[in-house]
Amino acid sequence: MARLSLTVLVLLFGVSLPCHAETSLRIATWNIAHLYDSYTDRYRAYARTDDDFARLKEYADQLDADIIALQEVENAGVARRVFGMDYDFFFSTRNNAQKVGFAIRKGLIPYSTASDYTPLGLDRSALRYGLDLTLILNGQRLRLLNVHLKSFCQAKPLTSKTHHCARLSQQVAPLEAWIDARVRAQEPLIVLGDFNRRFEEEGNAEDGQWMWPIISDENPPQQHLHRVTQNRQSTCWSGQYPAFIDHIILDDRSAKWLQPNSFRQIVYTDPRVLQKKLSDHCPISIDLHIKQPNS
Q1: Residue 201: which domain range?
Q2: Which residues on neighbouring strands pair with residue 49, listed in sequence order?
Q3: Is residue 119 part of a domain?
């Protein structure tokens, strides 16, 4: 990725980038499957050796992203073993090892803050919080929400009579509320992470059964969402999981910065026996090219 070189910094709100006529940025999401400091017997199979961390770092280097939304990562200490010393890390305050976080390349971004989006936790239940990050890009605010939604309801209707689908269904309203608030404020947005939802297998009816029609209902009228995984198949682990559940979603304002054909998925080339030592999720990324207004 092209790196920024000017040293004029304007610290505004949240994360502030140097003032440039143009900014190039690679944004990614990666669920690194139970990447913890220590392991109970339940997750012992995911415990990483030094060699495993070295493999993960090789894939992180291939990804070469400026901002990575992380899921299932406990803290900055273990994240640093994957991404090295060139990143700053911010994690949700949820009292559980399975956190969401952001890795942000140092030097590119001189100052950063991120805050919990607790409504996704449904009154501090066992569900994961979102993490809300604000960037200032050439004087323009960009909001990112990192999510890891309820599992085990990947394609069933949200109205299915299962505990998992009922909980996921409850998360849809706060997710939509965050999106709609950004649209009303005319703030470009990106929602990314592990949605635990195979959107390609959903129906189109706006009857409350399907997540994508609810969150992309064009209400407010200016709301038009774009899913970069749409009409694509995952090749992670040789297509073992062909339907994406990790997604990157943009609105019209952020989509105008999307570089054509920049979507990438980094796939593992190691034997499948190492899946738990790497992840059952492969990282995906996009490139943005942001110009100053009227430049």
Answers
A1: 15-291
A2: none
A3: yes
In a domain, 3, yes or no: no
The CATH number that applies at residue 264 is 3.60.10.10
Type of residue found at 33: A
Place of tokens 């593992």: 268
Rounded Cα distance between 171 and 17, Å, is 32
Q: What is the DSSP letter of 100?
A: E
Distance CA 200, CA 258 (A): 21
Q: Residue 218 phi/psi, 5° resolution? A: 55, 35
Amino acid at 133: L
Tokens of 58: 């090789």
b/e map 74-97, b = 16+ CB within 10 Å: bebebbbbbbeeebbbbbbebeeb
What are 279's two structure tokens?
């992840």
Closest C-alpha to 66, from 16, 30, 105:
105
Beta strands in 170-283 (DSSP E): 189-194, 225-227, 246-251, 264-265
- Report pLDDT digits (tens) over 215-256: 999 999 989 999 999 999 999 999 998 999 999 999 999 999
Instruction: Look at the chain and report how many structural domains it folds into.
Output: 1
Q: What is the pTM of this model?
A: 0.92
Residue 60 lies in a domain: yes
pLDDT in tens, 160-183: 999 999 999 999 999 999 999 999
